[in-house]
Amino acid sequence: MIIEPRLVITMAVICLVGIGVYGLLITRNLIKVIVALQILVKGAILALVLAAELQGQIQLGQSLALTLIVADTIVAVVGLALGLQVRRRVGSLDLRDLSKLKG
Amino acid sequence: MPALLSLGTILLPWMGAVFIWILGDKRHKLVGPVAVVFSTLAALSALYLYPFATSDIVVNLSMGDAFGYLTFRPDGLAVLLTAIATVIGCLAVIFSLDYMRGEHQLPRYYSFILLFIGAMSGLVLTSSLLYLFFFWEITALSSYALISFNNDDPKAVRGGIKALIMTQVGGAGLLAGALAMNSAIGNFEIDRILANPAAIPAGLLAFAAFGFLVAAGAKSAQFPFQTWLPDAMEAPTPISALIHAATMVNAGVYLLARFYPAFAEVPGWKLAVVTVGVVTAFTAALMAITAGDIKRVLAYSTVSQLGYMVYAIGLGAVEAAQFHLLSHAIFKALLFLSAGAVIHSVGTRDILRMGGLGKKMPFIRLAFVIGAMALAGIPVLNGFWSKELILEAGKETGPEWGYFLMLAGAGLTALYTLRLTWMVFYGKPREDLQVHHAGKAMKVALIPLAVGSIFSWLLVTTVTRVSANTMPYHTMVETNIPSLVREVALSPGTWIALAVILLSIGIWMVSHRMRFFEKALSWASRPIKASFGMESINDAIIRVVESAGERLQLSQTGLLSWNLLYVLIALILACIYLAVGA
Q1: CB B568 to CB A96 under 8 A?
Q2: What per-residue confidence (pLDDT) applies to A103?
Q3: Beta pairing partners, B350
Q4: Which of B343, B385, B374, B334 lies closest to B361 in space, CA to CA?
Q5: Is the pLDDT of residue B510 over 80?
Q6: Any B CB within 8 A of A28 CB
Q7: Domain residues of chain B, as ranges?
Q8: What integer pLDDT is reported at residue A49 of this predicted model?
Q9: What is the Cα–Cα distance from B343 to B351, expressed in whole angstroms?
Q10: For B473-492, what is each residue's pLDDT tens digit?
């Protein structure tokens, strides 16, 4: 049985996005939210490369994917730094506690 | 040139609003003068636009496929209302320099006034129904924001919400009518509707006609929506003068006047407009007699005078309505601003606590008395001429019961005006109130309005000529000063109306200054105070809207997980739809 590479990538995309969305749905911990978000975005990057390959513009997809990886790292860093500050100020990482901080 | 000027009347105030917003709270001393500069520039461009009035479209900007063209057509009606909005807006801003001195958050105040002035100019200048609706809603928004300007006062917040919801009812009517027109003719051009109303299916035309009547009734505080305007008096007084007396409430009258040629043939529409006008004018005059708050009396009288304009449009006397709109804008702004000077000086709005203030503030008394005489319809002031024209049209073409009620309304107007003036400025002081003197900016704003109240009727030649030349779909009668004087002086209707006004003044003098009259009205005072049951209906509408809003709040949890779940469900539904559709 020959394994079609595109099929593998599609499955990977579905798994990654599914795990990310499931994580975002169930977790209330800020750190876990950021981790889930990262998994989700990795799935999206993979989907981008796959789409570019299907269009026959694989170089464009790869270069965009590289840019996205860099940008996404920054998002993760800033998010974690904010999470750290939240932990210090509020004393908790629970999103329900945070949503009580209305102005 | 007209393109530049008509854009200027909208964009100059809006630029000022943005500029003031950028200046912010820290440089609050600069904010007032900047607002004066921008509103004066807008007023100058509106006045300069007047001679360029034309029936052609001068600005035509494409806004993409969905939104059609943003078009401006400065014709006679539009340039007049633009001039009123910007000039009185400019005077209200100048007045605010003194009135609002020392208040907090002035940038919010001034930028919303400027936003309003620009939107009002846009509302009357545009010839696209869709953009008329946009500007209409911007005026409603700034009206709401300014009524609730003192946002730590629950009454002000309540009044603002009430005004917003009630005018939204009208906005819904306008939108429904506009969409009906769009489905009939394929675009939103007002000219196409006016040019050939017979081409539109009768059902759609009637739907739009009554939708617009609801819109006009809600915006102009006509029966049965009239109760939001008195509650809007929690706004700072310059706002009441500008938005709730001289300009925004005229938008409804403008809408009816603009679409009169299209809707005149709709069965029952003219009678409905006349009925709304008569009922409003008469009941609001009754309410004004019993009110005890200086601004509420003026608000009821605004409602009543707007009723006269609506009545005139229902009779087809569009030029009389337009003329009365001009007079009313000037003298009511004068009355409100001088009332504002009184309130600012003595610190109360209760007329039962005032009295004998005239000696302490002779200048304000002079201004107020001029405005009051114009409102009561005393000869040679502007209110006299325009009200006579309306009553004459009513006598000639209207139903008799309407004419009699309107005559009685004119008498009641004289009564409540006299009562108000007397209780505030004459007689013995009922309380020892501390009087601060009116500032210079207040006087600067009052003088042009007082002069205008006396002489603005001399503009009748220009106003009617420009309207007749530039409004091809309306049948505007051109009048000049000698023929106006002859027409009014020789008509028996004038003498009847004057007799009624004098009679009511006489009753007031004889009957111990209203005590008799108030006693006679006492059995009716409870229904009058409840606006003949309309208050509770309007309140019920507001309660329904508010509780619906609270229910909807539950769907906004603010929690990430729930929001994501909604997104996911929507995505799945979209996929199912696509799959089934394919």
Answers
A1: no
A2: 47
A3: B293
A4: B343
A5: no
A6: yes
A7: 2-529, 541-581
A8: 92
A9: 10
A10: 777 777 777 877 777 777 77
